[in-house]
């Protein structure tokens, strides 16, 4: 029985490897211009002199799919994904009539079959609550499948070699939103183990697993002691945090400050410069809600404590949290994007393109991990001062402002914003504020990102677009109808469209669920931005 169980786990891992290579092929075909997606219009076909190599490689791949089809027929092997199926696709006539018929009849049929399988298994999943159909493979056929996967990977590598290094890096980043879905810890771990050198998949899947396990544990830590769950205690005594004093009085209320962390745990005498963010709590809350808030704080700290997060997530590692009744105002605050906006030291155009791309990819991966930010604005984007002597070189951003973040699920408790300001409300979707507001969703995060991208494009703060007579609805309409269209002349059509998609919530159209809306966000907002250069 143990051998059969090990065989089943090994075979499941092989199928995830196959799924990764199938996704690589689909993503490459979309980038190369071979797939037509009715949601996005006809793809732009490349006029490339290597078309003969491409056509021969695709024919070899179609033969591999045919071999896989025989195995599937014999053993009932089925690939499953939590994502809704992609629409039926057709290859263009790029290769000419004769070759096009071969591609259409052989490869396009197989790709479409994967989508049909997804539909059938989605129905079965409602009955079995399983992401992978249980199966067993004979040793000889398992070896054959392993060889098939290696061949497919080699063919894919050859196709990807035709792309530039920038395009290859972008398409690798597309794999995480495509594949890291679902709520099954075991299968996410199998995906991470099967990912090989696809460096974005494993850390994103592991981060999602970490979030799911923390939610399941529902640990409520005891201050200054051991967590009730037996996990590492991240609650730091307040005496170990020493705040830096500013050279002069700080005029506005500080949401974060620079401090020194004196870590004396286990006999160590370590001093580290850290950044402290405050989260305001309502003292009048009942005991159960206070416990929920503390549990949420502990879960968030542990999620951000993970050091193996994807580098593209651009979120600092969290050392822990303190419980403090006093919020100091006169402290040294770090420099943020908000501080640089509106000044005479305008960031270079190329740096603004990169800044917009890195922030968009960061949010995409955060959502892929199953977490909502709920506080995206220019004040939440850290620009390290010691690395950036001037705002004309915007550098690489870090995403902060997680005080109201929560898991992206229907059962998670959503904190009320205690002290909303007119400035912070400028980044909130009209339906995400006010007494009759909707429950916060990914699209509301994406809307806030659109406002930040608008600020980056004009290099102006959002309040410069605001008028005291505006309601939230009128302000949003003005951004969409008047200001965002002007970005075309300043930042180009691609950038303008990315901002409008975020602000208008166009990702809802054609998306059949959160997972597909997430993939839409990557392809329509994140993916086009690196193509912009200056």
Automatic annotation (TrEMBL):
Pfam families linked to this entry: DUF7580 (PF24476), HeLo (PF14479)
InterPro entries: DUF7580, HeLo_dom, HeLo_sf, Kinase-like_dom_sf, Prot_kinase_dom
Annotated ranges, domain Protein kinase: 185-534
GO molecular function annotations of the record: ATP binding; protein kinase activity
PANTHER family reported in the protein's UniProt record: HELO DOMAIN-CONTAINING PROTEIN-RELATED
Protein's recorded name: Protein kinase domain-containing protein
């Amino acid at each position: 029985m143990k051998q059969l169980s090990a065989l089943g786990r090994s075979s499941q891992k092989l199928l995830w490897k196959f799924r990764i290579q199938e996704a690589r092929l689909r993503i490459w075909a979309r980038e190369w211009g071979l797939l037509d997606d009715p949601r996005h219009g006809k793809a732009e076909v490349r006029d490339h002199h290597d078309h003969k190599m491409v056509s021969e490689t695709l024919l070899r791949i179609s033969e591999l799919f045919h071999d896989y089809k025989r195995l599937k027929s014999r053993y009932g092997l089925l690939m499953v994904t939590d994502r809704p199926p992609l629409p039926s696709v057709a290859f263009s006539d790029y290769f000419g009539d004769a070759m096009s018929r071969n591609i259409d009849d052989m490869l396009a049929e197989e790709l479409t079959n994967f989508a049909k399988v997804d539909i059938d298994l989605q129905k079965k999943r409602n009955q079995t609550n399983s992401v992978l159909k249980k199966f067993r493979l004979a040793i000889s056929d398992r070896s054959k499948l392993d060889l098939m996967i290696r061949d497919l990977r080699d063919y894919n590598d050859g196709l990807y070699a035709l792309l530039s290094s920038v395009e290859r890096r972008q398409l690798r980043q597309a794999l995480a939103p495509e594949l890291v879905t679902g709520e099954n810890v075991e299968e996410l771990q199998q995906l991470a183990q099967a990912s090989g050198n696809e460096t974005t998949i494993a850390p994103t899947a592991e981060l999602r697993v970490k979030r799911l396990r923390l939610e399941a544990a529902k640990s409520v830590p005891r201050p200054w002691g051991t967590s009730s769950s037996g996990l590492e205690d991240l609650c730091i005594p307040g005496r170990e945090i020493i705040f830096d004093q500013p050279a002069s009085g700080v005029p506005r209320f500080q949401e974060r400050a620079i401090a020194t962390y004196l870590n004396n745990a286990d006999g160590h005498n370590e001093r580290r410069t850290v950044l402290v963010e405050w989260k305001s709590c309502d003292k009048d809350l009942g005991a159960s809600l206070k416990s929920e808030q503390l549990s949420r704080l502990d879960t968030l700290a542990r999620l951000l404590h993970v050091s193996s997060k994807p580098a593209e997530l651009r979120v600092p590692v969290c050392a822990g949290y303190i419980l403090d009744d006093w919020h100091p105002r006169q402290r040294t605050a770090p420099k943020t994007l908000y501080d640089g906006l509106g000044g005479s030291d305008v960031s270079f155009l190329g740096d603004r393109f990169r800044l917009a791309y890195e922030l968009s990819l960061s949010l995409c991966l955060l959502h892929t991990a199953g977490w909502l930010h709920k506080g995206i604005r220019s004040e939440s984007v850290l620009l390290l001062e010691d690395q950036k002597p001037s705002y004309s070189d915007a550098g690489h951003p870090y995403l902060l402002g997680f005080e109201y973040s929560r898991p992206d699920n229907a059962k998670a408790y959503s904190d009320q914003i205690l002290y909303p300001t007119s400035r912070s409300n400028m980044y909130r979707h009209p339906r995400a504020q006010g007494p009759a507001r909707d429950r916060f969703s990914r699209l509301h995060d994406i809307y806030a990102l659109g406002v930040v991208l608008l600020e980056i494009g004009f290099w102006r703060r959002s309040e410069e677009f605001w008028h005291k007579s505006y309601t939230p609805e009128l302000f949003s309409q003005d951004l969409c109808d008047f200001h965002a269209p002007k970005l075309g002349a300043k930042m180009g059509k691609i950038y303008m469209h990315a901002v409008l998609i975020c602000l208008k919530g166009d990702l809802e159209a054609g998306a059949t669920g959160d997972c597909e809306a997430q993939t839409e966000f990557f392809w329509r907002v994140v993916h086009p931005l690196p193509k912009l250069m200056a």
